[in-house]
Structures are given as structure tokens and as C-alpha cells.
# Entry
Amino acid sequence: MKPLIVALGFLTRLPMPRVAADQADFARAIRLYPVAGLVIGAIVAGAGWLGAWVDPWVGALAALAVWVWATGALHLDGLADLSDGLGAAHGDRARLLSVMADPHIGSFGVVVLVIQLLAKLVLLHRVPPDHWAMIALIPAAARIGPLVWARFLPPLKPNGLGAAVAGAVRPGDVIGWMVGVLALDLFAPPLAVTPLVIFGLGLWFRRKLGGVSGDVHGAGIELTETALLLAAVLYTAS
# Structure
């Protein structure tokens, strides 16, 4: 139970029992990120389903607000930091890392955050009333990404979170979660694109950044969630 408590305590703002955890515990907790994502997804889907009884826009706003609250905007912060770094670095890797480490948000980060939140809001609005259960699986599927990226991409910072989790992910973890998400295609066909999105982002991270960090993992989760939301909306509209 300790790894799950650590994963939930790190990835969510849900009240968790206090446990003594070191960096190794945080690294091993990455194996259960998808489980934490399923908890987040259940809360998001429940809020959206309840709100949609009032109005589809109310449902979308409720789901988005709960999504941001449940995660503490942790991954949005990573997306903003990555956007600022890419916008200001101009190909300079040292400057990229320096800007990403700056706690202040810049104009690139603000613009991308607004676009990301609007994209999720609009896509959540298009979710049919009987498909909210499928939406609950999206945060879980998106959190398989950090396992893949940590396993196959080098860390950007030698002493950062990305380096800590790199050695904690085992091949069986990646294979097991990928098989699991593909098996869920029977109930949620849009999840079939999960491997393509995750591996596509991984290739982009390698080409554009040269590796991953905690911020990159967070940004990747956000981008994967939006891509899977789009896939779900396109599927339900067909």
C-alpha cells in the first residue's frame, strides 16, 4: 500500500495517510501512476456526469475544475514550464533548463495554459451523457506515459525526478500497463491510440529536448490527456 499512498500523495491533492517516504519510494511509486490516474478519472467523470444533468457546459466546467483541483495543477505547471523553456531557449539546452527551473511563469506558459484548459473544456462539453465512464479511464491511460519516457529517454537533470524514476521502471511495468490499456479497448475503443500518443510524444521529447524531467513528464501527461479526450469525442461523434 505504501507505493500507492506515495503515488496518490504526489499526484493528487486527496487526503492521504502520512507515511515516511524517501526519494527511492517516490521513484518506485511511478509504477502505480496509472492507478492514481484512475482515481483522478473517477472523480472527474463523476463531477462531469452530475453537472451534465444541469447543462452540458456545467458538466464540462465541473469536470475541468475537479480535474485541476484533484491534481493540484501539478501537470499544468510542468506544461507551463516546458512551454516557457521552449519559447525562450532558441535551441540553447542550458537556457532551456534554466528557464524551466524558474518558478515564475512567462508569456509562453500563460498562452499554452489557456489553450490547454480551453481545449479540455470544449472537449468535455462534447462528451455524451452515457460516455462519462469512458472519460474516467483517460487520466489512467495518460499516466502510463511517464513509465515509458522514464524507461527509454535519458534524464535532463542528473539529480532530478526524471533521473530518480529512470531506474525504478522495469520492462514488465511498461509491458503490463500497455497490455492493460489495450485490453480496455473492448470497453473504450479510443484508448487504442494511447501507445501512439505516448511513443509519439517520446520521439518529440528526444528530438526537441534530448530527454525528460519532472516538468516534461507533467507536460506529457497533459498533452496525452487532451489527445485521448479528442479521440473519445471523435469516437462518440461517429
About this structure: The first helix runs from residue 2 to 11. The chain has one domain: 2-237. The two ends are 41 Å apart (CA to CA).
